[in-house]
Specification:
149 residues; alpha+beta; two-stranded antiparallel ribbon
Length: 149
Amino acid sequence: MLIHYFKITFRNIWKYKTQSLTGIFGLAFAIACFVPVLYWIRYETSYDSFHPDAEDIHRLYMVEKQSGRINELAPAILARKLSEQYPAVEAATSFMPEINNCKTPDISHIRLRTFNTNNTFLRFSDRSLSVVTPNNRCLQNLAWFLPKA
């Protein structure tokens, strides 16, 4: 019986080629658009979900008046002023990622991905990270706020 259904399906696809191809390509295009959107929504809704108090963590960004662009880097003084002027804010910190190019006598080019923050940043999590040098020597343990991949 199942083979009979496949025969009828194939005959209809062959008989109505244009309509069948339009439907198949339309469905393929819809799935190709839906999957990235699904992953994007999953990523956006998982922001800081690893933290026990994730519902109390808010990310602040700025919108530039002239261009209307979203700027994710806010001034560092803003974190201190939020804590001082708004009693509802328990803690605020800034986080500035940087890429530094360095060299040593042994290694001609090292690209370091670092970040600048204040001491309030360390209160946001209980995770730890071992900092490793290029020679695989462990330097120290630091507080870490990102989930391990």
